[in-house]
Write the structure tokens for this entry.
Amino acid sequence: MNLGIGLFLLKIIITLVEFPFAESNDLRKLLEILFLAVLFFCLGCETEPIISISSKPVPVIYAVFDDLDSVHNIVITKSFGADYNPANEARIFDSLFFDEIEVEVEYLPPGWRTEWQAIDVQHNVGVKKDSGFFSYPYNEYYQFNLPLREWKRKFVDSIKIEVRIPGYEDLIGKIKIIDSITISTPKFNQKYVYLVPNSSFKIHWSNSMPWEEPHAWSEIDVSFEFIEELDTGLRSKWVHFQNTQYFLSPHEKYRELSITYEEFITKVLQELKVDDKVKYTYLGEIKMHMTGGDNFMVQYMKYLEGYNDYSFDGYSNIQNGLGILTSVTHFRKKDMYFDFETRKTLVDENRLKKFKFSRRFE
């Protein structure tokens, strides 16, 4: 029995219950039992309803501009509204991408008297995508070459994208490239850092120039290397600290990450494992990686994490379409080490004796 026949029988039973001859209690009970039996049978049918939403696809644009990259990608796809069975329509190769697209990219150099400059854009097809619901086996994207920054020198202030698709209004996206990160502590050429019970290991950072807009969010990853000596040679283990901060007001510009001695010991005990094959453990390199992002990225991340007042379908900064244009910046520092006093303190720490720390410095 399929779902349609089951529902038809339910309708007949309901009609019979309402007739005058069904006033007998025994007959009414029989009809009620029959009603429930047919209902459960219908719910247990293997036939599943096919849900389709007929709608005109909406253009979607995604691009993240990393100021350390010179090659940038733009993904232009479309929302999916199936007129029939979605599983069948997803097999159509143009379910993901538009056939005819014109893409123009312009950038604005820094300075007061500058004009928008056009740049060549290349349409790329052929990068194999992950398997999924849609049958189309490749990714399509648009690519252009444009250095954004070299150290503290900024080459691009803003990027503008215009997309023309037949049957749609022109899509426009504009983004200001985020400013770089400046580290004030530790110093740029500082090699040794200090961490003892009464003094934390601190990192201070900000934007590069006082007049620049503060980053809407910052993420910092600090990694400590532990070099284990075995009979077969050396191997490295890493202990990681990660911290993400958001600006709560436009005046919050300077940031700090402080790792106390107790926090460090707790983290080492959590992440390092005792291995009887280890003869000695040496304190190795310290490195850090910072990422700063703009407010567009913050709003988009909040939406993805569920912060939504349901007054809109999703976060977008694309005019006449959906999607996100955003920019990020990075700072990396490595080749730092604990100073002699810190290494001596950690070697003498009773809670770390089981790891066989040695003062020898590599």
Remarks:
- Residues 1-22, 49-54, 307-312 have pLDDT under 50 and may be disordered.
